[in-house]
Design goal:
The complex is a heterodimer of chains A (167) and B (258).
Chain A lengths: L3 H24 L4 H32 L1 H6 L6 E2 L8 E4 L2 E7 L3 E8 L4 E7 L1 E6 L2 E3 L2 E7 L4 E8 L2 E4 L7
Parallel strand pairs in A: 1-4
Antiparallel strand pairs in A: 2-3, 3-10, 4-9, 5-8, 5-10, 6-7, 6-9
Chain B lengths: L1 H9 L1 H24 L2 H15 L5 H11 L16 H34 L2 E2 L3 H30 L5 H27 L5 E3 L3 E3 L14 E2 H5 L5 E3 L1 H24 L3
Antiparallel strand pairs in B: 1-3, 2-5, 3-4
Helix pairs in contact in B: 1-5, 2-3, 2-5, 3-5, 4-6, 5-6, 5-9, 6-7, 6-9, 7-9
The chains are: A alpha+beta (167), B mainly alpha (258).
Chain lengths: 167, 258
């Protein structure tokens, strides 16, 4: 419950500002255009703020805060790392990284070609080709078709590429 | 014409300063490109474009400030010869938009030149399209929003209500603009689309842009994802500009003529 308080306070302040703006806008000017324009636009802002607050309340109560912060792997990354945005190339070779600072749920990574990899997580359920892994860090060479399934994991990090390591 | 000249005179320091900065930057980029490493120039160019683009917000901000203090300001004598609100507002709008048009043209042009000389291949129309899209979908509405902001503050003086009221209205405008954009994107799919440009990124440039090394053609890699860039934001931007222009004209006639 206490998680909701700062978020509710944030939206309440925005809503109060919008409604105050609408009130002042209607009462404090003699220009009809200014009165109508400001009042309508401030009410639009108030309505949008209320809608945003309602949407985030529903989102938080249906999924919980930790998962929103932790995130999911949107879609399985298949095969090589040609189109990814988290790629590094250093002296040890190139590496592709999937990582979540908080909690990760229902992620899947399918190797399209043989590659060197490392998997690391602090707690949770991670399956490598259907085999459940104990929390920790593992290095290995995957063949094409190897599947990493994250049911739920905390501090998950998957590295793929020559430079993947547990260091 | 006289109003245009007066607008230019009023804001000559800002306009001159902005154009000086962007032309100095262009000259520096040219020197780096001709004398130094093209790849390093590209990296520096990307950084500087991100740093310089927000400077384009200065013009609407300065306009808003100038307008909010206009009725009693040092140039109040301008108001002794009444002209239509449309003349006043469009003089401001034209000067501001012209300044920003030159500013963004230099920004886009130099970036295109730097990109071309590192070996990034793109369609010849791409820089022009990017510039036009940016101007119509973002710059023009923001400029007229700055004008409306200043006039709103003037409409609520004397008193402290002006700033709060103007901020609330501007937030409302952004929300409505956003909503219009979503509606247009969902419903106006029949509008013409800008084709996905050919953009070939050579092997050695990709790491600078945070991509995996390898030659990439944007069109071939994106053609399965979407068929073209929608022009709905341009039409929404023009509609928002027209609506706010109408509001600004009425505000001027009610506030500054009184």
């Amino acid at each position: 419950m206490s998680v909701f308080f700062p978020i509710a306070l944030f939206y309440a302040v925005l809503l109060a500002l919008a409604l105050w703006g609408a009130l002042l806008g209607w009462t404090r000017s003699k220009s009809p255009t200014a009165r109508y324009f400001v009042t309508i636009m401030a009410l639009v802002w108030a309505g949008a703020t209320a809608a945003d607050a309602w949407r985030s309340y529903q989102l938080f109560s249906s999924t919980g805060l930790a998962e929103i912060v932790g995130g999911e792997i949107g879609q399985p990354v298949i095969g090589g790392y040609e189109y990814c945005s988290l790629c590094y190339e250093g002296p040890a070779g190139s590496v592709y990284v999937v990582a979540a600072g908080g909690k990760m749920k229902n992620g899947e990574y399918l190797f399209g070609e043989p590659a060197h990899y490392s998997v690391r997580f602090e707690s949770g359920v991670v399956l490598l080709d259907g085999r459940r892994l104990e929390p920790g860090c593992y290095v290995g060479d995957a063949r094409a078709g190897t599947r990493v399934l994250v049911q739920e994991a905390r501090k998950f990090r998957l590295e793929v590429g020559e430079a993947a390591s547990c260091k | 014409m006289k109003l245009l000249a007066l607008e230019l005179r009023k804001h000559r320091l800002l306009i001159g300063g902005m154009l000086l900065v962007v032309f100095l930057w262009a000259a520096w980029m040219a020197r780096e490109l001709l004398a130094g490493e093209p790849l390093v120039t590209l990296a520096v160019n990307i950084g500087f474009v991100f740093a310089l683009v927000p400077v384009g917000l200065l013009v609407p901000l300065v306009l808003a400030r100038a307008l909010s203090g206009e009725a009693a300001g040092p140039l109040a004598f301008l108001l002794t010869s009444p002209r239509s609100g449309l003349a006043h507002v469009s003089a401001r709008f034209v000067v501001a938009l012209g300044t920003l048009a030159v500013y963004y043209a230099v920004l886009v042009g130099v970036s295109a030149w730097v990109a071309a000389s590192v070996g990034i291949g793109f369609d010849a129309w791409l820089p022009y399209a990017a510039w036009g899209y940016l101007m119509a979908a973002w710059v023009a509405p923001v400029v007229i929003l700055g004008i409306v902001y200043g006039l709103l503050v003037a409409a609520y003086r004397p008193g402290r209500a002006g700033q709060l009221v103007a901020v609330a209205a501007v937030f409302g405008v952004f929300k409505a603009w956003n909503w219009l954009g979503e509606q247009a994107a969902a419903r106006l799919s029949f509008l013409p689309q800008v084709p996905v440009p050919h953009l070939t990124i050579p092997r050695e440039v990709a790491p600078i842009l945070g991509m995996a090394p390898g030659e990439i053609d944007l069109q071939t890699s994106l053609q399965n994802v979407f068929s073209g860039v929608p022009t709905a934001p341009v039409f929404v931007g023009l509609a928002v500009t027209a609506a706010l222009l109408w509001v600004a004209v009425r505000l001027w006639e009610e506030v500054e003529w009184a």
